[in-house]
From TrEMBL:
Pfam families: ADH_N. This is Zinc-containing alcohol dehydrogenase superfamily. It comes from Shewanella piezotolerans (strain WP3 / JCM 13877). PANTHER family: QUINONE OXIDOREDUCTASE PIG3, QUINONE OXIDOREDUCTASE PIG3-RELATED. Keywords: NADP, Oxidoreductase. InterPro entries: ADH-like_N (IPR013154), GroES-like_sf (IPR011032). GO terms for molecular function: NADPH binding; oxidoreductase activity, acting on NAD(P)H. SUPFAM superfamilies: GroES-like (SSF50129). Residues 44-155 form the Alcohol dehydrogenase-like N-terminal domain.
Amino acid sequence: MKLTTSSSIPGNIPDTMEAMTLVGHGDFDMLQHNSAVAVPTILDNQVLIKVSVAGVNNTDINTRTAWYSKSSADSRDASWSGQALTFPRIQGADVCGEIVAVGKNVDPQRIGQRVLIEPCITHINGKQLTSPWYFGSECDGGFAQYTSVDALHAYAINCALSDIELASFPCSYSTAENMLTKANVSEQERVLIPISIRS
């Protein structure tokens, strides 16, 4: 594998990094700080991202508690894909950061790009998955100093918003988009979005 590194960080990518690792399903005690996690090795179609901010997505909570299982908190099918997770797992679905290295099939001009990661992963090393994975659930995410993802899931961002503001977009935007898509709302319609509904 050819690894192209950024000229602004020549050879400065460490071998290990700090990360919050999920060691099993349960409460907060299942999250452990680890200061000696291997920096991801990128594949040919991937980018290595130096994480600036990782927001908390409801998927991070639901994955930790095994909420996605068909039965209550059953670890055998507790992920988006319905499969058991492997531990330790680095969570963190909503990530903003900078590309610091690229695989051999990725344009080296992408190094230095500020990016947001699309958390619904449809490709691994250029190959389409049969069912989507979720970043930080089926594969390691962004609660770490570095993370890797297929280049097509790393979107270049050029705006004045802060990294913190941008990291809130994947969850909030996709939730709103999904709501509008499912409701089939058109330009001519008016909608009411109640803040709280109680039965």
